[in-house]
Amino acid sequence: MSMLNWTRISLVALALSPTTALADGPKLFVAMQCNTCHAISVAGIAWNRKDSQASDLSKVGVTRDDKFISMYLLKKTDITGVKHKATFPGTTEDLRTMANWLASLK
Given a cut of 70, is residue 1 above it in pLDDT? Predict the structure, then answer.
């Protein structure tokens, strides 16, 4: 394989790297208005609603992995009988980015 082909493969891999996805997590969280209900204080993201009863997700990755978070945001599983209040509005890639980032918060 030529050097040019390896360079293309490397650039594609870089574009899809988990590090890039994790960097996009906070921006996506705010853009999708998740901070209407949730805060992530370790990322400097505050609640938009001061009366929110939803949790700060700063350490969600300690107890939940990316697969669980994805299923929860899609309302396909629950936490102690309660499903997530909002349906995830983004694309499959947005969901993957969000779940990976949230799972990294420990």
Answer: no
